[in-house]
Specification:
Elements (H helix, E strand, L loop, with lengths): L11 E9 L8 E6 L9 E19 L3 H12 L2 H9 L2 E3 L7 E2 L2 E3 L2 E3 L1 E19 L3 E8 L2 E9 L1
């Protein structure tokens, strides 16, 4: 019990992905899109919010080749093939990726080779919802002395 499911001589990689709080995560681009009205149905509009989520990805490599694996991962993130694949999904890595960090762990009296590499990715995210469209409005203008006027707006 408690023993890792792999041998000290095997190479194993774990991946941990999590969103992080970042200034770009708070900026929103809001757009409205009109839908074609359908006779007898309520007029609606598309309301879309786009923003950038920042994701932290950690690769935790164990095994005799862990440092080389971490370095290959670091290099591979910025390869042309990876960049093209990520761009197809609206994902962009931040290009400043620190060198892998070697961090051996002692377990059961033996040192297990471990190396970690961390990268950050910007992920363009768009959320769209359908909302009712106003086709008319009644506006009342009031002053301290009472009702000043009424405006009716119709499509």
């Amino acid at each position: 019990e408690g023993q890792p499911a792999w041998q000290i001589t095997e190479n194993v990689v774990f991946v941990e992905i999590r969103p992080i709080d970042n200034q770009y995560d708070k900026l929103r681009d809001i757009t409205w899109g009109e839908q074609t009205p359908v006779t007898g149905q309520e007029i609606v509009s598309d309301y879309s919010t786009s923003y950038t989520r920042v994701m932290q990805v950690d690769w935790i490599c164990y095994g005799p080749d862990s440092f080389d694996l971490a370095d290959k991962i670091r290099f591979g993130i910025l390869s042309q093939e990876s960049l093209a694949m990520l761009a197809d999904s609206a994902i962009a890595p931040l290009t400043e990726i620190p060198a892998p960090r070697r961090a051996p762990e002692v377990y059961d009296g033996r040192w297990w080779e471990r190396s970690d590499v961390r990268a950050y990715f910007n992920v363009l995210t768009t959320r769209t919802e359908t909302v009712p469209y106003l086709d008319s409005a009644n506006i009342e203008l009031h002053t301290e002395t009472g009702l000043y006027g009424t405006i009716e707006i119709e499509e």
